[in-house]
Write a structure and sequence with these properties.
This protein is an all-alpha fold. It is built from 9 helices and no strands. The chain has helices spanning about 5-50, 50-60, 60-80, 90-105, 110, 115-140, 145-165, 170-200, 205-235. Helix 4 runs parallel beside helix 9 and helix 7 packs antiparallel against helix 8 (about 170-200). The longest helix has about 45 residues, at about 5-50. The model is unreliable at about 1-10 (pLDDT under 50).
Amino acid sequence: MDYNEFTKVVDEKERGLELQAAFPALMRKVYGWMALALVITGLTSFMVASSPALVQAIYGNSIAFWVLMIAEFGIVWYVSARIDRLSIMSATVWFTIYSVLNGAVLSFVFLAYTMTSITQVFFITAGTFGAMAFIGTTTKRDLTKFGGILLMGLIGIIIASIVNLFVGSSMFDLILSYIGVLLFVGLTAWDAQQIKRALYMAPDAGESAQKIALLGALNLYLDFINLFLYLLRIFGRDN
């Protein structure tokens, strides 16, 4: 082994030890960012739902509603595609903006369901999410092979939901809700494992790892929100 190869091996070991030491703090950032985004979304939803003028502006105007939906999709795509080029501050700002927009869109939750139902389902979601995230982070089983199946299932349920908008079958909607719960339970465990692997493969424990943590927080945030909505459709009581 020549000097350059020896130096490369030493640097790789040092990088691994550095990431291993920083891993607990990085994971706390993942769930900290995710929890903060959920708080922002919840507060925004409640504030919008409490304002008849804002409710009318969003749900009384289909153009405004679809502008918000497209903006949300655009932010997720932009952050995911350009995370390497964005600074950690810029990525955090975009994540915060997305949380606010999503809160405005989800304000219907406080209009359609009782506060008791929302609270109960939130805790059910938190417990289920926490268990699956723990399993995904700690299991030694490789969940990679399930990723393709879960993503195909996600595409399928999106298409089926769009079809049901025209069909209007309550039974089909309930079936889709149960499938959605299973799908996002699996995605939570899969995303948690992917975040763990991505952090250990990061080039360093600095900003690069923090960007991975932020993107992981966004993915888990989406898993939590979707799991909550599907559970709410199953267990929630109409307001």
